[in-house]
Amino acid sequence: MDTLRIDRRVVLVTGAASGIGHAIARACAAEGATVHLADVSDSVHEAAGKVTAAGSGSVTSHVCDVTDPDAVRTLVDDVTAASGRLDVAFLNAGINGVPSLLQPGGAIDELPFAAWRRVMDVNLDGLFHCLQHCARVMKEQRSGSIVVTASTAGLRAEPRVSYPYVASKAAVVGLVRQASLELARFGVRVNALAPGPVVTNIGGPGPRPEAAVAAWEDSIPMRRWGRPDDITGAALLLASDDSSWMTGGVHVVDGGASALTQIPSTVLPAPAPDAGSTAAGR
Ligand SMILES: NC(=O)c1ccc[n+]([C@@H]2O[C@H](COP(=O)([O-])OP(=O)(O)OC[C@H]3O[C@@H](n4cnc5c(N)ncnc54)[C@H](O)[C@@H]3O)[C@@H](O)[C@H]2O)c1
């Protein structure tokens, strides 16, 4: 798409070893950007090889755990030292890996605090560290675009994923909006992308029963799960000057799923026996 203008931009992508982050890194490279991939997994080096093959700009890879503030500071300093500036940051690293509230162990009174903390640590605290250091550089240079991967699960209740995932992504949206207010006067834009269900290591049908998979597809008007490449067009738009008056927004990319007003309550377990007057049917 020649209307997008991120060629020669310096781009950082966290969570770039796989899934959505990897697809974004590839798409940026294909547009001629200089791309720095970061991930907690050392498979990021192999991923960078694939990104190099997809583009013409220079590509580097960095092992970095976003939950470690010192490591994030070093990452951002290394990127700016190597490339002279930081134009675009896709802050995308995230995990789930905790039972949903429909799965054994996922109920509020069963969920271990450690599981809650682990997801909040990566999805929220990790984003905070990245945002803090990217903002430091971009404020100074008086320009930049930060694109955060939130989720439609942060925009409403979603029984098919876990408590900490939903809570962390809702908080991510608040953080993005708040940062957009502060950074606007420095010429720095901050937006959230909110993907719906995308087939990746943490998203997709997984080991769910066939009927649950079919029901999930039925909740998407476009009748299919997303693919990582479905997210890249919106990601590049938010990165480029084509979105120069867009900041503080939450941009849904979900095959139309959020346009449906509600998920039927029949996806939830039946009312518990002897439940009080708030349960269905009383
Ligand atoms: N797949 C979906 O359905 C979906 C939907 C909405 C939002 N998202 C969000 O998209 C983002 C990317 O997820 P994905 O679906 O591509 O999954 P993914 O597992 O394929 O990619 C996530 C990447 O983040 C990395 N990562 C995890 N913890 C990290 C840490 N502490 N430091 C640095 N990197 C870390 C992983 O190693 C992995 O490479 C996440 O923020 C996720 O919450 C995914």
Descriptive report:
GO terms for molecular function: oxidoreductase activity, acting on NAD(P)H, oxygen as acceptor. Belongs to the short-chain dehydrogenases/reductases (SDR) family. Keywords: Oxidoreductase. InterPro entries: KR_dom (IPR057326), NAD(P)-bd_dom_sf (IPR036291), SDR_fam (IPR002347). The protein is an alpha/beta fold and 282 residues long. The chain has one domain (10-253): NAD(P)-binding Rossmann-like Domain (Rossmann fold, 3-Layer(aba) Sandwich). The protein is 38% helix and 13% strand. The chain contains seven helices and seven strands. It has helices at residues 19-30, 44-54, 69-83, 113-141, 163-183, 210-218, 229-239; strands at residues 10-14, 34-39, 59-63, 88-91, 144-149, 188-195, 250-253. Strand 4 (88-91), helix 4 and strand 5 (144-149) form a beta-alpha-beta unit. Helix 1 (19-30) packs parallel to helix 2 and helix 4 (113-141) runs parallel beside helix 5 (163-183). The mean pLDDT is 93. The site of nicotinamide-adenine-dinucleotide has 29 residues, from helix 1 and helix 4.
Give a concise summary.
The chain is 38% helix and 13% strand. The protein is α/β, with parallel strands linked by helices. The protein has one domain (10-253): Rossmann fold.
As laid out across the biggest beta sheet, the strand order is: 3-2-1-4-5-6-7
The figure for the number of domains is 1
User: What is the distance, rounded to the nearest whole angstrom, between the alpha carbons of the first and last residues?
Assistant: 57 Å
Question: How many E strands?
Answer: 7
What is the CATH superfamily?
NAD(P)-binding Rossmann-like Domain
Task: Based on the coordinates given, report the CATH architecture.
Answer: 3-Layer(aba) Sandwich
The overall pLDDT, averaged over residues, is 93
Q: Helical percent range? A: 25-40%
- The string of secondary-structure elements, in order, is EHEHEHEHEHEHHE
Bound molecules: nicotinamide-adenine-dinucleotide
* CATH topology annotation: Rossmann fold
Globular, elongated, flat, extended or rod-shaped: what is the shape?
globular
- CA radius of gyration: 19 Å
What proportion strand? 5-15%
Count of helices? 7
